[in-house]
Amino acid sequence: MVYSFYNSNDFSSPGYDVSRLISPSLHDYGASYGVLEPSHALILESEKIEQVNNGSEDARVGKNYENSDAKALAALKNHSEAERRRRERINGHLATLRGLVSSTDKMDKATILAKVVSQVKELQRNAMEASKGLLIPTDFDEVEVEPYEDHRSMSYKASICCDYRPEILFDLRHTLDALELQLVRAETSTLEGRMKNVFVYRCCKGKGDNNNTGACQALARNVQKALSRVIDKASNALEYSLRASLPCKRRRICLLEN
Predict the structure, then answer these.
(1) Domains of the chain
(2) What is the pLDDT of residues 215-224, one digit of tens each?
(3) Distance between CA atoms of 213 and 203, rounded to whole angstroms?
(4) pLDDT per residue as tens digits for the range 33-47
(5) How far is CA 201 from CA 95, 117, 197, 245, in A?
(6) How many CA atoms lie less than 13 Å away from 85 in the CB half-sphere?
(7) Alpha-carbon distances, residue 39 vs 18, 19, 36, 52 (angstroms)
């Protein structure tokens, strides 16, 4: 038998738990048999939800890391493949250059390139020397007027190079007639749609006269300006013909009968 003694003052005080008076062991009965108070159950439930959310967040972060790693690996693989192709292309070009020059067995890449460049420049000089006596049109339009060696009188040589067009010959003849030049020699050559005209004209008799020299130089400037106008006229005509040859859309008119 259990006897309980209590004080009336304690019983009447606010917040006093009556269950302790009846049976002190009833206060912790629920906890001992696994029955929790509602506040404790809510706290545990929220902790479980938080753990689940943290787990899903960790899984999502891990998946993002895996995707980023896969992308980085693919980019690295593509870069390596591009670098391999670039090296193969360079090695192929170097093999071609080795076949153009001699004694390249023990040369590095820089030496091979330097020797090839030197050889190309030498070939260009040889080609220019070989074509000095030939009348070959160049790939660009040009007008040149320069003194010409003539022991009997002061002469000039004028040359014009441009695209070949039939009307240019007429314009050249008209220009030379207007300048009233005393022509000594004239040559014309064409190559792959290009034309070059060279003519030598006599400026004045005798040498050493300052007045004659100044007059000849002034005439040479006039000749150069006149020939430049011929090229400009031909270029404008060519541009106009190209524009005119382009197909143009005609305006359609629809007639409706009332």
Answers:
(1) 142-243 (3.30.70.260)
(2) 888 888 999 9
(3) 9
(4) 444 455 555 565 666
(5) 53, 41, 13, 39
(6) 5
(7) 21, 19, 8, 20
Task: Report yes or no: 165 and 234 within 8 Å, Cβ to Cβ.
Answer: yes
Are 197 and 172 within 8 A, CB to CB? yes
Query: Rounded CA gap, 251 and 202, in Å?
Result: 58
Amino acid at 215: A
Count Cβ atoms below 10 Å from residue 184 Cβ, excluding itself: 15
Nearest CA to 147 among 215, 205, 216, 225?
216
d(CA 16, CA 253): 105
Alpha carbons within 13 angstroms on the beta-carbon side of residue 240 total: 6
Whole-model pTM over 0.70: no
Number of C-beta neighbours around residue 145 at 10 A = 21
Phi, psi of 188 (to 5 degrees): -140, 135
CA angle 174–175–180, rounded 5-degree value: 100
Query: Could you tell me which of 210, 208, 196, 213 has the C-alpha nearest to residue 156?
Result: 213
